[in-house]
Amino acid sequence: METQRFIVDNNVDSEKSYSQAVDLLNNGELVAFPTETVYGLGAVATNESAVKKIYAAKGRPSDNPLIVHIGTFAELEKYVDYISDKARKCMEAFWPGPLTIIFKVKPNILAPSVTAGLDTVGIRMPNHPVAIRLLQKLGKPVAAPSANRSGKPSPTEGIHVEQDLAGEIPMILDGGATGIGVESTVIDLTLETPVILRPGAITKEMFEKVIGPVEQPTHIEQKAGAPRAPGMKYTHYAPNAPVYLIEQNEQQVSRAIKELQQQGHKVALLGPQRFAHLVSNWFFTLGDSKEEMAANLFHALRACDSTAADIVLATVTSTDGVGAAIMNRLEKSAGGKWYSKDYQKQ
Ligand code: TXA
Ligand code: MG
């Protein structure tokens, strides 16, 4: 299958591209599109054979459910049983936006593969002009995971989707780089105390101002317990070379690079811009603020695969605000390994 990538932005007359995307979706095909977080790989969420194509194209395990994207508030009650007060407050505060809410699902409406056998469904209303225009033009719910091959970093540019899925899908709507860069926050509001299953740009601090206390188990804590977000148990965001985490301390990083190079390694460093002068073999900037880090992270992890690096050092940040989301993704990409604890002791 040939994959076509169409640029859709305000300076281009894109109407034809949207019509073609809508036709493809209505015919049970897949279309990749940008959201404000990462690119999604969409299929009509009520069409089982279309949804199955998502799992096949990504190589995604079939027990990992998909997020359903909607373009209007009115659609929500078609798919969910009950909208709690807390859910309403979160929707009012954060939709459209980078937030997925887990609801009890109404039976027999969405394609069974969307929910992977659970009695709940994750729903989100994205806040990206291309996603919203596509959803509203289509007028149907769209199941869409991140548009990467399973295990790879999520795509934050149209070209990333092409790298992973060329030949597997007919169409990519390319709206340029996504703004936020990490996937939506997933919160389970079906529980007595709400639990953040995946941290994102809507932070614990932001929720607590709107609905009171919420729990945010760390990646390690989630691994130890029964996984509530099925996606938690799979490898994620991994470049080909192993990733080790390291404190954002210039002396420590500089020493680590020297040690590794003396052992014959080629090192890719992911760090703040002010580390650019360090003598790693490759350097990919994470920028300086947490927002920049979130926006640059997946691009930087992907960029490692276009180098001959055989080890990646990634500097960490604190877990306040969107830092929790950054650290969650970094810990997964490193498989929890730290340079000081896990490499130097080998
Ligand atoms: O920002 C995003 O959320 C992007 C864009 C495209 O919208 N989508 C995305 O989808 O990241 P995906 O499939 O890569 O991640 C969905 C996560 C997985 O960890 C999955 O296990 C969890 O949400 N999830 C989905 N439905 C769930 C459910 N009913 N209960 C618990 N977790 C659920
Ligand atoms: Mg994903």
Write up what this structure looks like.
- The protein is an alpha/beta fold.
- It folds into two domains: 4-211, Alpha-Beta Complex (DHBP synthase); 243-345, Rossmann fold (3-Layer(aba) Sandwich), CATH 3.40.50.
- The protein is built from 13 helices and 14 strands.
- The protein has helices at 15-26, 48-58, 76-79, 85-94, 112-115, 129-138, 158-165, 204-211, 219-224, 250-262, 290-303, 323-333, 339-343, and strands spanning 4-7, 31-33, 40-44, 67-69, 99-104, 120-124, 142-143, 171-174, 185-188, 195-198, 243-246, 267-271, 282-285, 311-315.
- The strands form two sheets. It has a ten-stranded mixed sheet with strand order 1-8-2-3-7-4-6-5-9-10, with helices on both faces. A four-stranded parallel sheet has the order 11-14-12-13, sandwiched between helices.
- Helix 1 (15-26) crosses helix 6 (129-138) and helix 11 runs parallel beside helix 12 (323-333).
- The protein is globular, with a radius of gyration of 20 Å.
- The chain starts with a strand and ends with a helix.
- The model has no long low-confidence stretch (mean pLDDT 94).
- Threonylcarbamoyladenylate binds next to strand 5, strand 6 and strand 10.
